[in-house]
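S.,

Sequence below, as promised.
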Amino acid sequence: MINVTKTPGLWTVQLDRPDKANALTSAMLETLIDAFTAAKQAQINALILTGSGKVFSAGADLAEAHAGLATSDLWERLSGAVADLPALTIAALNGTVAGGALGMVLACDLRLCVPQANFFYPVMKLGFLPQPSDARRMARLIGPARTKWILMGGQKITADTARDWGLVEAIAAAQDLEAQARGLAEAAMAAQPALVAGIKQLVP
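The prediction came back faster than expected:
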């Protein structure tokens, strides 16, 4: 349910459970953590995170969420592994992003999405707190009031609003999404890994 494609300097990690809107199970989260850990050890220059189908991820698998996944430390471990990767990380969002799935997206360096994408994080409605790092990273990108708009106001925002607010950097047509993500990765792929890591450390 997680596909990893490896080419020189660039890995692509794809969520591949389209029949369930790429809802994340504990096994998928563990596989994603392993993938990002392996990418760090491989000293790659860039990584693209994407999904299959028309939804990037609906968040936690509901059956597992009510069985404890919603409050599992796997979410924090995953977003930490994404943020800790000393490579350029690009989230190429093929569709809507919901709930805890936003964590790994927020931890990426750059975000692209298709025009049909929506963004929402309905944890309060479901009776849970968001992951701490998710709220902090979201606030750094879009500010505290807009973060509360999503987390406390329970609002779903569109791709256009996400771009205007700074939650994503660009919108690309579905057929252009992968090419645009690869284009963004080209400069990093041509550089020395130490330079990519060094620039990433300089930018808070």
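The beta strands are 2-7, 10-15, 46-51, 55-57, 88-93, 96-98, 110-113, 118-120, 157-158, 170-171.

Coffee later?
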